[in-house]
Task: structure prediction
Amino acid sequence: MWWDNYTDLQQVLFIVAVTSTVIMIVLILLMLIGFDNSDFDGIDDLDVDFDIDSINDEPFSDIAGLKIFTIRGTLAFISMGSWVTILFIDIVDQVWLAGVIGAIAGLIAALLLAYALRQAMKLESSGNIIYQEAVGKHATVYLRIPKDKTGKGKVNLLLGGRYAEIDAMTEDKDDILVNQDVLVVGVYDQTILMVKNNKGEK
Result:
């Protein structure tokens, strides 16, 4: 039986790969139908670096605006990394080398998934959005929003039945960091949402 031909390590990696792949597919499907915006923000957008954004080190969790270390990104890393490691254990004789190759493949998969999801989100938010309908709604910060209207960030929210990514500014005296919950209080220059930090209140 093919299973018996696997080493103990390959069997463990196979279980991890299958499990992470299934969970990742489920989360992506939930996102595509707009089910994870308000109910799953706290899960999907939880950074693996354990709130590294709280010290405003965004380069560690965002590369060129791509959110890499999310639950979906981590699952992509684990899934692809495990599959590739299983494959290369039989090709290269050194387990550590197979692990390195798997880790590189996992990182590439996480980057590609982040890029694909970002492009999909842009398509979703590029339609005819009535920005005034966002006033009074909660949103999640996707890119840091500078304080005192000194620059723009981005937020994600469910608007018009679609998961949208929209530019946002704030008059708060402190920057609003990635993954924080905000309340939309107005619209500026027709297409920019004015938000304020909810300070953990929803």
